[in-house]
Amino acid sequence: MHLEPDVLIHGVSPPILLDMALQLHDINQSSWSESHEFSLEDIAIALGATLAEARSVTEALVADGVFARGEGHERGYFATQKLGQLANASISKGITRQRAEVLLQDVIRAAEMINADPEKYPYQVTCLVVFGSFLTDKATLGDLDIGLLLRQTVFFTGSEFGIEQRMKIDRSHYNRSRAALRLKKPKLVSLHELDEVVRIGTPYRLVFGELPNVPAAE
Amino acid sequence: MWANIEQLKMNDMEDTGVSQVAVEPRLVLPQMIMTAKEYRQAKLLMSSRDKCHFLVSTDFVTASERQIEYERAKQKSSKIDALVAEVLARELGIERYMVVRVRNCFRGVQAVTDVEEVISAVTDVQEVILQVLNFDIKNSYLSPHTFSLHGRRVKKNGTLGKVPEGVTMRIGWVSRRRLDGTWMNLSARREALPCT
Questions:
Q1: Do A71 and A133 fall into the same domain?
Q2: pLDDT tens, position by position, B130-162
Q3: How far does B157 lie from chain A, in Å, by closest CA?
Q4: Are residues A104 and A188 in the same domain?
Q5: CA-based Rg of chain B, rounded to a whole angstrom?
Q6: Would you call A45 an interface residue with chain B, using a CB distance cutoff of 8 Å?
Q7: φ and ψ of A136, to 5 deg
Q8: N or C: which end of chain B has fewer CB atoms below 10 A?
């Protein structure tokens, strides 16, 4: 999800709404129970607004499906999956579909370059999938969401280093491959692990390599 | 945060095109904006709370008595909180959970205590941005009593932080953040009347 920087949502500035979603999402994640119940006060505190203002915004967000009303509790609200999406949203002007398609080709070329040079990139690209707004018919996208799976093909065997140092070197190799795929455009290309994409249950499309033993959603 | 008034004027102009500090600062003291009855009640509550605090901090009471005094002090604090919340909502429009910006006037290192002086000679401004969670009245060395706001700090990027923050209001400007992200000046809704 992406939010336009200058467009108010139910009269609320996007950075303020995003901050509210992040705070409530954090409370929800830290809760022991599966779903945390928010009171209107919780929402007002997270929003930085009076109770009267928070009430009108909450009603609008309930209508949008960001919150659900708790059964049997008049003043209780539950977080829905949309609250998580809102908390992870980015505020940007977005990119056009044409630009996104060019970027996707660049990412695929970067993956081919990585796989062609295992010495420089010990972590090779097994597969790339695209998901999110790219699969919709929107003309303007928030960013290009890519799911990736990397596999280590060349192992570092320097015996003079300890296990911690070897892990650090492995990590830097892994990050090197990711950085190459991100094309030095972190605001435009958003990389996610493939298992994260599968876990969310969002539709995705394979664009490079072969999927491991996970069912293709599209 | 300390800021030079001229710099503040320029920053305001860049942000909104209107400088808040160009208008006359307001005197925000309990004895000026509370009614006589409210002020008397507040002083009474403060004095009884101070007594409870004194007993809690001494060794002349038993542990159970200390606990009782502690609970009593908490009750007095919550009564003061409710009273101040009502007064500030009515007179200034400051309500709980709002994000407010308080700018107190200073002249050099010395706080200004008279509005007349401010107009001519204020040089520095102390600026605090916080989300108001609690209200209080405190004894001050500059004025008999001052309103005090407590809550949490707003980070530089505008998001609400977790660090506790507090500010006392004397002479200056108070504004609140609207939900659309703009700032609105708050000023006394009626003429300030001195209390006896």
A1: no
A2: 999 999 998 877 678 889 999 999 998 889 999
A3: 9
A4: yes
A5: 18
A6: yes
A7: -90, -175
A8: C
Q: Domain boundary at A90, A112, A145, which?
A: A90
Weakly modelled stretches of chain B, pLDDT under 70: 1-9, 13-24, 107-123, 142, 188-196
Asked if A49 and B97 come within 8 Å (Cβ–Cβ), the reply is yes
Asked if B50 reaches chain A (Cβ–Cβ under 8 Å), the answer is no
CA distances from A118 to A113, A114, A148, A149, A180 (A): 9, 7, 17, 16, 13
A144 and A61 in one domain? no
Q: What residues have CB less than 8 Å from B65, skipping those under 6 apart? A: B55
CB proximity under 8 Å: B 58-87 to A? none
User: Looking at the whole model, is its pTM more than 0.80?
Assistant: no
Q: Give per-residue pLDDT as tens, A181-218.
A: 888 877 788 888 888 888 877 889 999 988 887 555 55
Burial class (CB in 10 A: 0-12, 13-18, 19+), A57: buried
- If 0-12 CB within 10 Å is exposed, 13-18 middle and 19+ buried, where does residue A145 land? buried
Q: What ipTM does this complex have? A: 0.81
Contact criterion met (CB < 8 Å) for B180 and A13: yes
Q: Note whether A47 contacts B177, CB cutoff 8 Å.
A: no
Q: Which of residues 5-34 of B touch A (CB under 8 A)?
A: none
Is residue A178 within 8 A of residue A153, CB to CB? The reply is: no
Six token digits for residue A45: 């505190």
Establish how many alpha carbons lie within 13 A of residue A210's alpha carbon, considering only the half-sphere containing its beta carbon.
2
